[in-house]
UniProtKB/TrEMBL annotation:
Name this polypeptide is given: TRAP transporter large permease subunit
Organism: Cytobacillus citreus
Annotated ranges, domain TRAP C4-dicarboxylate transport system permease DctM subunit: 7-414
Stored InterPro entries: DctM (IPR010656), TRAP_DctM (IPR004681)
Subcellular location: Cell inner membrane
Biological classification of the source: Bacteria, Bacillati, Bacillota, Bacilli, Bacillales
Superkingdom of source: Bacteria
């Protein structure tokens, strides 16, 4: 039956049926052939979505869209330019730093790539940077959106694995800073080698003015993460705070949010949220089939009888994630694979919080690997270039991210040190 399910799923994917519909339809067909009580199907879908932590997803999605359209990303970039724009490869450094800050606001890779790329790709090209390199840099920098907290995939992981979302957020901080630092270092090295020029050095007065202007947006990550880790609010409540803060800053301080912008913002947020929730509902049906067929138990028994060790298992799983990332997006991969992998993780005594970061970095790679990397399509649309050119520009960054992944796998404390401090 599992072979039939996967066959139907792959055929529907090849026919370009949306992932959620493909997964739901293939699972329903197999459940019907298994004489399953089909009245449980809608019940399972609604149960999967009827979760308090799940409410954080539309909150952070709306906050990300709101802040991208409300001027916050623009003023952050202007402030960063005054501080580091005069350095070798200054604009590329600004791009990575802006992605890191916006990642700590939106929790979404495509949103980060879109918000920063729409401003920085034209600026870098006008300053003499190779367009292919500029597109690759933005696509790679945008992936930080799901590693640096808050992160929508980490929320999904926490709900599925029943782990603390606050600890998962904290676990992503050091690996996120590490990846950002590696990208910044590579940008400076590349700029020096290619002779990319420096920008005009800003005066201290210009730095002061731009920093004061941007401080409202830069304070939001502090507000979100500080309120969570201090225990004042839950991640779900912090998402609502982010929305209201974004409205106040965009509408009354920056005055770039107008009534005519409200409808497009709400429509875009609904579209993104609906896509995520539809995938969650479909994946819950897949999980229902796995439970009914006792597949996790069978896999766990097989591993217990096999001679696999922990490191061989981790290597196999990373390769599996890399391949799946070429065809599926992050939420789908987490919801499809995690219920199967959980018994194995427990068997090998792999820390679930550490594994969440390993999984998330793999999901980041999936964002920039063809043929279905979401960030590739976002950047292609922004830059009005063919997808192949974006792919060729992002290949060096894939190698850098694999290097960071290896470091995070080998040194678990990079992910676990901060969560352990919360205990």
């Amino acid at each position: 039956m599992i072979i039939l399910l996967l066959s139907i799923f792959l055929v529907l994917m090849i026919l370009r049926v949306p992932i959620a519909i493909s997964l739901a339809m293939s699972t329903i067909v197999v459940l019907m052939l298994s004489d399953f009580n089909m009245t449980m199907v809608p019940q399972r879908v609604f149960t999967a979505l009827d979760s308090y932590p799940m409410m954080a997803i539309p909150g952070f999605v709306l906050a990300g869209v709101l802040l991208a359209r409300g001027g916050i990303s623009k003023y952050l970039i202007e402030a960063l330019k005054t501080w580091v724009g005069h350095l070798p490869g200054g604009l590329s450094v600004v791009t990575i730093l802006a992605c890191m800050i916006f990642a700590a606001i939106s929790g979404s890779s495509p949103a980060t790539a879109a918000a920063i790329g729409s401003i920085m790709i034209p600026a870098m090209v006008n300053a003499g940077y190779d367009k292919k390199y500029s597109m690759g840099l933005v696509a790679a920098g945008g992936t930080l959106g799901i590693l640096i907290p808050p992160s929508i995939p980490l929320i999904i992981y926490g709900i599925t694995a029943e782990e603390s979302i606050g600890k998962l957020f904290m676990a992503g901080v050091i690996p996120g800073l590490l990846l950002g630092g590696v990208l910044v270092s590579s940008a400076i090295f590349y700029a020096k080698r290619k002779g990319y020029g420096k920008g005009v050095k800003a005066t201290w007065e210009e730095r002061r003015r731009s920093s004061l202007k941007a401080i409202w947006g830069a304070f939001l990550p502090v507000l979100i993460l500080g309120s969570i880790y201090s225990g004042v609010v839950t991640p779900t409540e912090s998402a609502v705070i982010a929305v209201f803060y974004g409205i106040i800053v965009s509408a009354f301080i920056y005055r770039e949010l107008h009534w005519k912008d409200v409808r497009p913002i709400i429509v875009e947020s609904i579209n993104i949220t609906a896509m995520i929730f539809l995938i969650i509902g479909a994946a819950s049906l897949f999980g229902l089939y796995l439970t009914n067929a006792q597949i996790p138990q069978e896999i766990g028994a097989w591993i217990a009888e096999s001679n696999l060790n922990k490191w061989v298992f981790i290597i196999i799983v990373n390769i599996l994630f890399f391949i799946m990332g070429m065809f599926l997006e992050a939420v789908s991969i987490i919801l499809i694979t995690l219920p199967i992998l959980l018994p194995m993780l427990i068997h090998f005594d792999i820390n679930l919080i550490h594994f969440a970061i390993i999984m998330t970095i793999n999901m980041e790679l999936g964002m920039i690997t063809p043929p279905v990397g979401l960030n590739l399509f976002v950047v292609s649309g922004i830059a009005k270039e063919k997808l192949g050119k974006v792919v060729s520009g992002v290949i060096p960054f894939i190698a850098l991210m694999i290097f960071v992944l290896i470091i995070v796998v080998i040194f678990p404390q990079l992910s676990l040190w901060l969560p352990e401090k919360m205990q």
